[in-house]
Write a structure and sequence with these properties.
Layout (H helix, E strand, L loop, with lengths): L11 H20 L2 H9 L4 E5 L3 E7 L8 E6 L2 E8 L18 E8 L10 E5 L2 E7 L15
Antiparallel strand pairs: 1-2, 2-7, 3-4, 4-5, 6-7
């Protein structure tokens, strides 16, 4: 069997690569970042969860969200963050050059590793960051067990 090398413009792999790049550019031109904005919106708000041993601390990015439009609820080991981000329209005489910010309602719910004391949960917003402190339920706190000598 003889191997044939392809060079230059007739290389089928280069042709397919160029066609794929062209299709991607055309999709981007027609639809913008539609796929990316949908992926981002499904993870809005972005958040981190910390555990300091006594409490879980959730910090969520909520830029442009009025605190009055936020709802935080905790039940057992589940935290739910709901809200609405309103984006003002550009105006009647304007057309978008790029549109990446999305608005509308959002909801994120997730389970925490342990139950929390829902009567002591606190939430505050500062500089576009929502911080929720969720103290562990007494039954979920780690306890040091004293070992007795026999």
């Amino acid at each position: 069997m003889a191997l044939i090398r392809w060079f230059g413009e007739s290389d089928p792999w280069r042709l397919m690569e160029r066609q794929a790049e062209q299709a991607q550019r055309e999709f981007q031109r027609l639809w913008g970042n539609l796929g990316m904005s949908q992926a981002r919106s499904s993870l809005f708000p972005a958040l981190n969860i910390y555990d300091d041993g006594e409490s879980f601390i959730v910090r969520a990015e909520v830029p442009g969200v009025d605190p009055k439009n936020l709802d935080v609820s905790a039940t057992g080991d589940t935290l739910t963050i709901r809200g609405k981000r309103e984006i003002e329209p550009a105006g009647k005489e304007c057309s978008y050059h790029r549109r990446e910010r999305s608005g509308g309602e959002f909801r994120r719910a997730f389970s925490l590793p342990d139950s929390v004391d829902t009567s002591k949960v606190m939430a505050m917003v500062k500089d576009g960051i929502l911080e929720v402190r969720l103290p562990r339920a007494e039954a979920a706190k780690q306890r040091k067990i004293q070992i007795q000598a026999s």
